[in-house]
Amino acid sequence: MPIRGFRFLALLGAIAAVALAAPAAASAGSAHVAALQVAMSGLGLYPHPVDGITGPWTQQAVRTFQAQHGLTVDGVAGPQTRAALGKRGKPKLGKRPMHIGQRGWDVAALQFLLHERGFEPRGFDGGFGPNTQQAVRSFQTAAHVAVDGVAGPATISALRGKQTVTATPIGPVRFFQPAPGPVGDGFGFIPPGRWHTGLDFPVPKGTPIHAGGVGVVSFAGLNTGGYGNLVVVSHRLGFESWYAHMSVIAASAGQRVVGGQTIGYVGSTGRSTGPHLHFEVRHFGTPVDPTPYLLGYRAAAGARPDARTRKRGGGRKRRARSCRPNADARGRAADPLTARLDRCP
Description:
Largest sheet: 9 strands, antiparallel
Number of helices: 8
CATH superfamily of the largest domain: Glucose Permease (Domain IIA)
CATH architecture of the largest domain: Distorted Sandwich
CATH class of the largest domain: Mainly Beta
Shape: globular
Structural class: alpha+beta
Oligomer: single chain
Helix content: 10-25%
Number of strands: 13
Order of helices and strands: HHHHHHHHEEEEEEEEEEEEE
């Protein structure tokens, strides 16, 4: 999100702190926020993973930096704070073609964009080295732009464009499709320009939801950040699968599951405009496009919910009348970690 948007987020910091109950609402990271986190990390003020999602840790790092440099301490990375960062705070992404040997804010943002598409620069440090160059070349090949290892306007446009270009996953991790039928909203930018962090399966309420693969349920309950009834399954190699908006949860934290096992039933809890499954794949906490990882649909025998495992979303649900059905009704803001009721997907 634009750095100027931090001011609105800072006003609601207290809400964000409350909403950090695990697991927090997901939102795909912002390259600009990631660049800020890289800058703060380089100064020893942000000892946390770079995820592109602003929150209390990011804001505290900014406040500490501002206090150290005699700036207004508001946790907002505005023009004065960016200027005080020196070379770490400039130039903006897209201001120059990036090539090997360069450093800066834009390189850190580039590295995060490549990572989100599955083209690993092998770390976020704001330095354009051989690993970043190779990631750029791999992306250029997949995006059908000139392969020169230089991140110029065409490459940046493709990285930020609405057409999702992702790498073929490396390694043996695959997921069964968790619900039958075609995909509604896909991963990436969807009209009117919102970043969507997963795949939506618009199927009727009560349709069984199946685990994508072998793993352990790390969360099963009501998420107050917009996901409604949510199940998160942890898999090997740093992967997680998220299943949101359930009407009924049929799994519990700590439970081992296999691919195709029923873990819940489709609903419209949380910020949703109609019954559907919102399915995410995350790699070390960052949402990635599930499409290259998907195998076919598979339903295996699994326990159906009973009185001990049923969990239904409580409270009155507000429905966005002007939104089309079977979609997420969540705004772009990642922090505060609450959903927007006044914006359609």
